[in-house]
What we know:
A: 68% helix, 2% strand, binds magnesium ion
Amino acid sequence: MKKKELIPGLILIAALLVLLRYLELHISPQSQWAMLLTVLKKGSIYALVAVSMNLLNGFTGLFSLGQAGFMMIGAYTYAVLTIPAEQREMVYMYYEGGIIRFALPSIVGIILAGVVAAVFAFLIGLPVLRLKSDYLAIATLGFAEIMRALFQWDTLGPLTNGSNMLRSYPTFKTILYPFIVSGVCIALIVMLINSTYGRAFKAIRDDEIAAEAMGINLAHHKRIAFTVSSFFAGISGALLAMFQTNVQAKSFNSAMTYEILLIVVIGGIGSVTGSVISSFLFIACSEWLLRFLDETHVIGDVTLPLMRSGFRKVVFSLIIMVIVLFFRQGIMGNREFSFTRLFSGRSKKSKGGKADE
Amino acid sequence: MSNDSVLRIDNVTMQFGGVIAVDNVTIDVNKGEIVSLIGPNGAGKTTAFNVITGVYAPTNGAVYFNDEKIIENYPQGKMRTMYKGENQGKYRQVLSPTPDRITKLGIARTFQNIRLFKSQTVFENVLIAQHLRRTSNLLSATLHLNGKEEAQMRKDARDLLHILELDDVADEMATSLPYGKQRRVEIARAMATKPSLLLLDEPAAGMNPQETDELTAFIGRIRDEFGLTIFMIEHHMDLVMEISDRIYVLDFGKMIASGLPEEIQSNRRVIEAYLGGAVDE
Ligand SMILES: Nc1ncnc2c1ncn2[C@@H]1O[C@H](COP(=O)(O)OP(=O)(O)OP(=O)(O)O)[C@@H](O)[C@H]1O
Ligand SMILES: [Mg+2]
């Protein structure tokens, strides 16, 4: 089944990359379709962080809200380490060029972004992961907020540039870059989920007491899931920094975690493909399709009520409430999207049922 | 202590606040035996299992497995003044491994209120138990470089399901099965950890007479085929009397009798405890 999907899968990926490149070359920055490219780039980055959050919340059953914090750590690690030496005087102008005088290659910066986020996760994992669900959520959210404040602290300025922007670091030139990096990372997460460790995570999610009785060390496995999830959140943070071309700690606030959570919930807690699909949908809506909600509209001489800056957020909040109340499964539930299944028109479950008859 | 002792619960007391759920209980289980623990509802039977498997650290007492001390505790902190059990001061060190360590030592259990992994098939439920014998690390497992090990894990799980005659339901969702089958799947899952001592918490609960008969044969069979020692909590007296080598009886946390099935059947205190306390049977 896996092997059979491999060849069409590779062809599909190649076709997708060719299509993306084609779009990029043929959509002029002035056209109204330019927004599509932005949505695709940002969507691919959010897909990675959403899948990494899903690894924790959906597959290991750990309700953590630290994702924006780990993205910030990744974004800063990348920016701080890759700003070219000659630009540092200008970027760190309030801190005499900062304390770091070298610049690492972009790809090394991306990997270190993940590593540093993972190290932080490893360190706070020990005390925090002992907490039960809601307390864990509060603790991780708190951690993210503390980190955000810390990164803006003036004393750390020579390293983080305080509350000033970091910029002038290398960014990506083509849309293929975030797609390939995200794609590889998501593939690794999927492979982890399908490994014996992934099975242990799902066992913990389903029933901690039974999982422990099966010889699964809870503390150890929760820590692995937390660290790995943060590693990939860090990488997506680095990609986001590249996409935005500048970073500032204050943008990695709890509203951002909330957005990521929304994506995961809409896509289906426990579905990787759900998270990916809903990332693109969400970014398309928030950046593009629902922008009109934030604008003031006048028809004739009647100004439409409600439609003003911030209304979009209200609509999103309503969407999440509706989903939680009526469609707790999200788009995909905990199923995965699969072409073979789509075309054979039969779900795995009904096949299993048939064999039993 | 005899040299074929598998499990010894030594003066164990488990006190929750003011409630003494297990009161200074001593139990011995020897190699190859099927030993039953019976008693009215709330007698402390499941609590005893939870102490053996590391879910709770006992308030006082020790547990030995294959003559090796695996658990020991004494009243500490607030419990020092609250403790109402006996043998205080006899135990001094703290030895309280987590349940996964107990499983790795070779003690597996089932649960009174079935705890199967609900989003997984019967096969996957059994497959999870293979995780504790992995030799691959996170990286090699993620990159699927442990193909041999993975294939072996799957084969072991399939083989076990075959031996336990569960292959026909292998790909069904575990929790969609009838109650009796679920109990057997839970036993299979426990067996997949390759234990030498199996703890069964009311394996026949919710079963009809026919299923109970099948289970009786099943338990006897796995003991013989796998060379297991079985320690079992059960309310179905027919089952208990038929397959137990020895029986222990708890009432309000205290051991009120122990011995051969015939002895227990005619024991006055046991009959009183059951008539006075329980609505079962
Ligand atoms: N975690 C706990 N906290 C407080 N009290 C507990 C706890 N676990 C068990 N008890 C109490 O200990 C006593 C024994 O409970 P236990 O579950 O061991 O009984 P049991 O013999 O298994 O009964 P049953 O036949 O109903 O399963 C009960 O009074 C119960 O309320
Ligand atoms: Mg019980």
